[in-house]
Amino acid sequence: MKKFDYVIVGGGLAGASAIQGIRERDTQGSILLVGEETHLPYDRPPLSKKLWFGKARVEDIFIHDQRFYDEHGVSMVLGARVEKLDAQEKSITAANGESYGFGKLLLATGTQPRRIAIPGGELEGICYYRTLDDYLRMKNEAKSRQSVLIVGGGFIGSELAAALNSSLEVAMIFPSATLCRRVFPEKLGLAVQQHFQERGIRVIPSDFPTAISKSGDKFRTETASGKSLESDLVIIGIGVDPSIGLAKEAGLEVGNGIVVNEYLESSHPDIHAAGDNAFFPYLALGHDMRIEHWDNALSQGKLAGHNMAGAHEVFSYQPYFFSDLFEFGYEATGEVDARLETFADWQKENHTGVIYYLRDERVRGVMMCNVWDRLDVARELIRKNERVTPENLRGVIC
């Protein structure tokens, strides 16, 4: 069994960022990165955004080229699923039977798409959209197809509907009453939904599939309300679950992700977790969270790398996330949850302005809609944790 000073399980942004973090403190220690995909680590946001609009090429989305890993002395095992973690022996075992020992381990395993438990939910051709291979396949199939049904009205579903609208007839179905119900207040969700419909997208809210069948090249989706929807393609984006299987089976503490402390250390002192799978103390909010966004993976991965290499740095960063839905774009930070009390300070209603998310009269999250370069102001407002009224907030950010 070959041993490494540092082993990273997960070939995404958090894993790639950890390499940089390690090398900033340790230029000599041996590093192994094990990734389940065959590709070098890449950024995921373009898969549902820029790639479809021609604003990026596939070769642009890779975080580093092979030369970076070579120059930093990183051994790589790609296309390999890690099936076992032995926390006591400090080793991992891949599906091909190869085992590797570690001094420090980072679990950057991310998430896995949630499956739909209905008859036909695993039919060949249905796409649970998540990876670069999914994009390449859907991009190729879209060239010869006419219609697509998107199941899901959250981030991935809404972004894909906007992206595919230029080349396909798009229908989308989701169980909530409005798009992106988890983050958009009702009025904004309805306004964005109406904009989708004006663009020709068929929006079917408050409904969900009960069965999917296939005849020839056509899919037929039956719904709870009695609709029967025919399409050439079916893409399912109903959320993700953290990949915690390795950690759980190894006896690490898990919950809504792998439980880590403020140093991103798991319940085993030599095992860290970072990115989409980490359930961490969000210090500015005062409670634990798990965040599935690019900026969080970037910042946590780097800090985990520092700490694996001997630093003792607290993760106090406030990550943000972003999206673009036609002409409606936003950046958000903090606890952006539509179940909280919200106050919207609009310059142009449901288009340009700021939405504040409040708990106990304190700002816990901020979404800036078509308002840019104000993230630092929003972060400071959250950190202050002062009691406010809606009128106090008017004009604070824009």
Characterize the structure shown.
By secondary structure, this protein is an alpha/beta fold. The chain has three domains: 2-112 and 241-308, FAD/NAD(P)-binding domain, CATH 3.50.50.60; 115-236, FAD/NAD(P)-binding domain (3-Layer(bba) Sandwich); 327-393, 2-Layer Sandwich (Enolase-like, domain 1), CATH 3.30.390.30. The protein is built from nine helices and 26 strands. It has helices at 13-23, 66-71, 132-142, 155-164, 186-198, 245-249, 294-308, 375-384, 390-393; strands at 2-9, 31-35, 74-78, 82-86, 91-94, 99-107, 111-113, 127-128, 147-151, 169-173, 202-204, 209-215, 218-223, 228-231, 233-236, 240-242, 254-255, 257-259, 271-273, 278-282, 287-289, 320-325, 328-334, 341-348, 352-359, 362-369. The strands form six sheets. Strands 1, 2, 3, 4, 5, 6 and 19 form a seven-stranded mixed β-sheet that branches. It has a five-stranded parallel β-sheet with strand order 8-15-9-10-11. A hairpin with a 3-residue loop joins strand 24 (341-348) and strand 25.
